[in-house]
């Protein structure tokens, strides 16, 4: 029951992170001090990605790269910021799920170990009881050896007549 609710909560968190990221992008674009930082970071990112693409495709890398205009730079970096936020929320949810799952597995493993230990203890107890029973059987065999069935049942040679005479003498 808890697992489907947790999965649903994770999905809701991911879904809610998109509007939050959108609002973050809008606020970041309008804040004056943050806007200048965004423009500088966007220009640096643009230069880096353009040079990387040129190297990958085998084009000349010593060419001057035109900077983005301010609006495109702000838009590019706010999009990047929104994607990083969504990715971070998704990554945090995955990490949380993995940790929760590993804790659950650790609890299950501990329960298995305890169950195994209980079974081993029960086996040891049964083995001790078996040894005691074997000793009692050996003792009984020792005491009854050579006495036959009459010795086992404690019967006298007169076939139990002695018992009958004792019971008859008592009522008189």
UniProtKB/TrEMBL annotation:
Keywords: Coiled coil. One of its GO terms (cellular component) is mitochondrion. GO terms for biological process: regulation of lipid metabolic process. InterPro entries: OPA3-like. It holds the Pfam family OPA3. It comes from the Eukaryota. The keyword Cell membrane does not apply. Belongs to the OPA3 family. This is OPA3-like protein. It comes from Picea sitchensis.
């Amino acid at each position: 029951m808890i697992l489907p609710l947790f999965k649903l909560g994770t999905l809701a968190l991911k879904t809610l992170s998109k509007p939050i990221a959108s609002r973050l992008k809008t606020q970041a674009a309008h804040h004056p001090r943050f806007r200048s930082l965004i423009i500088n970071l966007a220009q640096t990112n643009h230069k880096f990605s353009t040079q990387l693409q040129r190297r990958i495709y085998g084009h000349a890398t010593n060419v001057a790269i035109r900077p983005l205009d301010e609006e495109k730079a702000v838009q590019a970096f706010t999009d990047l910021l929104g994607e990083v936020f969504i990715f971070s929320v998704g990554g945090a949810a995955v990490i949380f799920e993995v940790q929760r799952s590993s804790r659950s597995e650790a609890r299950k493993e501990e329960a298995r170990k305890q169950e195994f230990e209980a079974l081993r203890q029960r086996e040891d107890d049964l083995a001790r009881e078996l040894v005691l029973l074997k000793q009692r059987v050996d003792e009984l065999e020792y005491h009854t050896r050579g006495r036959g069935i009459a010795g086992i049942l404690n019967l006298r040679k007169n076939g139990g007549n002695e018992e009958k005479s004792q019971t008859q003498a008592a009522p008189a």
